[in-house]
Fold this protein.
Amino acid sequence: MDREDQRRYLVVGSVILEVVTPLFQQKIENDFTTQTTGGFGSFQAFINSQHVIHTLFHLRHRNSWCCKDKTNCRNHTSLPLVYCQWKKLYSENPGPGIHNCHCKFTANPVQLKDLDISLSSLILLNCCTLSQPEAEAVQLLRQYKNDYLSHNTTGCITQTEYNTLWPDLVTYVLRLDPSQNDSLIKIEHRPLDKSLCKKYFTFLLDLHQQIEEIKSTMESVHSSIQAVSSSLSGLNSSVETAFQAMDTTVQEIDLAVHRTDTAVQGMDTTVQVMGTSIQGIETSVQQTNDLLKELLHKGLTCECGRQIIIPLCNNQRRKHRDQYQLGQNIFFLHQQFKLQSLFLMGKSEFITDVKMMDDGRLVFCQPNENRLMICNTDESQTDCISLEGTPWSLTVVNNSIVAVTVRLQFRCYIEMYDINNKHILKSILTPGICIAAGLAMINNKLVVGGEGELMSVDYQTGETCTITTIQGGMSPFVLHASDDRIFFTSLWSNDRTLSWYNYIDNKIYNTKLPSPSNSITSLQDGSLYVCCDDGLIHHVSKDLKHREKVRGTNNELLQGKSFISYNTKQNKMVVLNYKNILSIFHEFQ
């Protein structure tokens, strides 16, 4: 285990525990003690107020309508406030309740210092008054904790991860409190303290690892039961052996339960009952399933609020994402607007690229005016970034940074822009690239097309190298990257070839489309939507072997050169046609 990797883990963990968590707690206190929110004298009084308890109740309970304020009740699709968090904040009133709503509960005498980053961020985002930049900072800092610490069982952070994480941590901490700069500098240069690192590791790691052990043990129980069931069909003598195997498995479960007794209360009792009351294989199967159901009802979750599902007997393994049926219409048109009126563009002006950020904002390249345009999907808060050169293609690097291909005085650059602060971060001179070829991200590096080659650009160091040369000297035009694959088409106008470069085997695969393509995007299951000159969207399997026209495609929206882009976090697809009409499609749930 590399000491520097451990030290980087300690640095990031220290920021989360020593800076971010107290900062969140302080912002909550500042909010509830101000006169604008009622001037509550304590945190308990604040969470016991009508607005707060009502809001948090609906973040934990679904299909419930409150007696005091039905008009403001919400039925959320997800429940981010988990059982243990709700129980920390509230207790049910003794005696039968008149209504099955938040009036049955009363706030506990909980202290602000008892809130971890997950719970404090939920309260900040849902119950306190934050500006949009502050809300974004709170959300992202919590997400960084989940991404890099909550499920990190190694206690290490690599140099590559740290180089991209640390600038974001600094940016969003200082956005919430600029006075924290000195604290961040001290923590950044903190030497490795193994005892402190071990302590922070215990605080920061979710129950995820221990729950996975229970899950593995439960799966072994199912395997044992199935084996016993098979043997009992022909041999009564195998029953005794099967029971011994079950007892051994139960002991293993007991050991796992003892390690997580605070998260799985009552499980030990259930296991003992199961071990002493096994009568016949049908009984043991039923008891095991009951045990698993109890685990699910206890709401075992990771810090990010996603429930960890332990499969019941005979259930198939869960898939990350079911395969879409090729040609299936999985989107519906939600809204449209004309960019000319939104950005006050002339009729001769045009957009060369558009991407949706993970927060839903849209970023456009407007080459005639040498600028990037930014707006929300509700057409509000339009903004722009002026460039010295001409922008053409762009890609999203992270939540606030985009990379853009730019031509300036016959030279080609890749420039990095912070769209929140609206300033340039870096300009990388990249000779040989074609700014119209497209730009993509893969393995934390930029991919761009050159003359007869695919090129990789390290946006941190500016280093440029050739990924692969393309047979016949063909220059890539439409470019898209997904997982370990780079998709591209030819710069030649009549070429109908769609190509795929695979990092794993370092080969290029080809397929023919009905007409030349204008834009490519990938969906949740890895398949592709390819927008073609025939005015149709073609749904292509991720191995390029099969394709179907997307049913219900609106040809009028796709006439001429059209750009298509899907954001997996928002589950939205944007389509921009040659008339500068932007269409936003939502995915059917």
About this structure: Residues 562 and 577 are 4 Å apart (CA to CA). Residues 331-587 form a domain with the Methylamine Dehydrogenase; Chain H fold (CATH 2.130.10.10).
